[in-house]
Amino acid sequence: MACHHFGIIDEFDDFHDYGADGDYYGLVKKYNCVSYDDDALEMWARGLEDIEFHWHTHGNMGNGLAWWGVTLIPPDAIPKAIFILEQHIDKTLRCEAEAVTLLGLLKKALSDSKWVIHYGC
Fold first, then answer.
1. What's the domain count of the chain?
2. What's the distance, Cα to Cα, between the start and end of the chain in Å?
């Protein structure tokens, strides 16, 4: 089962290529990532396709999540992601543990003005 990981970057580096970091599992640990099942994420992630994120580096813009890569979510895009995730929870009337955990991570990043990193796999 494919899984995605989301974490908070404590100190964002505009010039770093986050997609070139080698130790995938070490990075998931480094950013204290939460996991999200591929199938579950797919149910609501299409709503993110209209949001501009950064793929791998600060200068590489793309819409939605880099499904098999690294997505960098800036603080100003986090409220839109929160809104879409909350809509999914309300619409499905399901409060999956993964969704609640990710929602908490997004809200923490927003309150601390931090970037979120997403590893697709």
1. 1
2. 10
